[in-house]
From TrEMBL:
Protein name: COP9 signalosome complex subunit 3
Nucleus recorded as keyword: yes
Predominant cellular place of this UniProt entry's protein: cytoplasm
Family: Belongs to the CSN3 family.
Stretches assigned to the PCI domain: 252-439
Classification via SUPFAM superfamilies: Winged helix' DNA-binding domain (SSF46785)
Entry's Gene Ontology cellular component terms: COP9 signalosome; cytoplasm
Length: 506
């Protein structure tokens, strides 16, 4: 599958060099066609139902502009009690050079880390510690203060400075503390009624902490969920531009749900920006992720959204990969989404009737549903081109169920301008269809070929790594003497799902 193409080169995370202190400008106006603040039903959903509880709830749309500005947020200043033990603890943290030594310090209480130094000064604000030299010390202190309900939250100025200048290699020695910090930043932003203030520090954290942009960390789902819940979708694009290829459990205390939430939220952000192909890729990764017996509820929500995105993209439902979990396929086939996909786009009356089902609003899929309905006339017109060479405007209006000839003309002109259709409208209202111009130039094809070759090499390298992994070899040895029970390729990815006829009647 083709990953999202980078919209800009992201900041390097291979060293401790300072990163930009804010993500790209958040141009909410650029997605106004998709996201309408005054009409919730017309917006792309930003969360799964409450049962999944995987992505934060939707926050009201914010005005366009930069999300950097967290430093202007109000903060509560409270003095902290001094404790001589903190000085000794900071010395031990500074001298720690391995993950094991850092783990031994994790028993330090949050109350101690939230206290002041022996001389009464606050190590965060007194200039005693610097993010570059004292990354671990500040990481422990900031995460403790953000986690503890007994101590005041640090200022966003301090959080911003740390996330922009910390030493990534040192921070990787304490992955659990990085997770606490990321989640604490979100809570601190919510505490001051300014959720978008969390985006800038989280952006710096998610782009600087991993060894490469292709590494998944626990910060990724937190950052993407925040971008979606605050409707600042464009802030996520530099991160989504690089597909996840590496998962290092020693780097971050990841769990299965982190991977699902990241790709699900990424799909929502890309769908909100009408980057349908990229959105489909991310939703498919979530929907088809391996599952032992029962798939996650979030995967079913990804399947539902994926069906609607496919209808918008192709005018018809697309077969899900054969390794999609069988339970997901059965549940999808018994839902209104299945009925809607089968009726799309020709059965207009059925589509309108099915669209009234409350499940679409409950699933927060009204926005995608409406966009699929809006494209029905276009897909019917495209199907007409395979049967007719010429048609009159009134005939086309009758076929697509539109009363206004001017509206039909406007749709045709827009389709021709966007390259969806090749057609000529004569003075007497006769439409002559022709083949649309090729959508790709030779340069585009050459770039695609180079990309395909690089992906093939990457896949080959990944396969070799997998074949040499301990888990794979253990499973291979266990089943060596019992070939009858050896799982096929599909079983290695979870139970097989849809077949080639998944969209056909039983």
């Amino acid at each position: 599958m083709s990953p999202p193409q980078p919209s800009q080169s992201g900041p390097s995370v291979s060293d401790a060099a300072p990163a930009p202190t804010s993500p790209p400008e958040v141009a909410t106006s650029s997605v106004s066609a998709t996201i309408t603040a005054t009409d919730p039903a017309a917006s792309v959903p930003t969360t799964a139902p409450a049962a999944t509880a995987a992505v934060a709830s939707v926050a009201p749309a914010t005005a366009a502009g930069s999300v950097a500005g967290a430093s202007t947020a109000p903060t509560i200043t409270t003095t902290v009690a001094s404790d001589p033990a903190l000085d000794a603890l900071l010395t031990r943290i500074r001298e720690a050079i391995s993950g094991a030594q850092i783990a031994a310090l994790s028993t330090a209480t949050d109350a101690l880390l939230a206290s002041a130094l022996a001389d009464g000064s606050d190590p965060v604000t007194a200039g005693v510690l610097t993010p570059e030299e004292d990354t671990l010390a500040l990481l422990f202190i900031l995460s403790a203060r953000l986690q503890s309900s007994q101590s005041p939250n640090p200022s966003f100025d301090a959080i911003e400075e740390f996330c922009a200048y910390f030493d990534p290699e040192k921070a990787r020695l304490a992955p659990a503390r990085v997770t606490i910090l990321a989640k604490g930043i979100v809570r601190a932003a919510e505490a001051i009624a300014n959720p978008k203030a969390a985006i800038s520090p989280l952006y710096n954290l998610v782009t600087r902490y991993p060894p490469t942009p292709a590494h998944l960390t626990t910060v990724h789902p937190v950052f993407l969920s925040t971008c979606v819940s605050t409707r600042h979708f464009t802030a996520a694009l530099p991160v989504l531009a690089t597909p996840i290829m590496n998962i290092d459990m020693s780097l971050s205390d990841l769990n299965y749900n982190d991977h699902l939430v990241y790709h699900y939220a990424g799909g929502l952000a890309l769908a909100a920006l009408k980057r349908w192909r990229d959105a489909a890729d991310y939703l498919e990764i979530c929907a088809t992720a391996p599952a032992q017996q029962i798939p996650a509820a979030l995967q079913l929500e990804a399947c539902k959204k994926l069906v609607l995105v496919h209808l918008i993209m192709y005018g018809e439902a697309v077969q899900l990969p054969k390794y999609t979990h069988a339970v997901l396929v059965r549940m999808l086939r018994s839902s209104p989404y299945w009925s809607f996909a089968k009726a799309y786009p020709q059965q207009r009356a059925s589509l309108q009737s099915i669209a009234k089902n409350e499940i679409f609003a409950t699933d927060k899929n009204t926005g995608l549903l409406n966009q699929a309905l809006d494209r029905v006339p276009r897909w019917i017109i495209k199907k007409l081109t395979s049967t007719y060479l010429t048609l009159s405007l009134p005939d086309i209006a009758k076929e697509i169920g539109v009363d206004s000839i001017d509206e039909v003309r406007e749709i045709l002109v827009d389709m021709v301008a966007s390259g969806e259709l090749g057609a000529h409208i004569s003075v007497d209202g006769t439409v002559t269809f022709s083949d649309p111009p090729p959508p790709y130039s030779k340069a585009d094809i050459d770039r695609a070929l180079v990309h395909a070759q690089s992906q093939a090499k990457l896949l080959q390298d990944t396969e070799r790594t997998l074949a040499a992994s301990k888990d794979y070899l253990t499973k291979a040895v266990r089943h060596k003497d019992d070939p009858g029970n050896w799982p096929g390729d599909e079983d290695l990815h979870g139970q097989p799902g849809g077949r080639g006829d998944m969209w056909q009647d039983d």
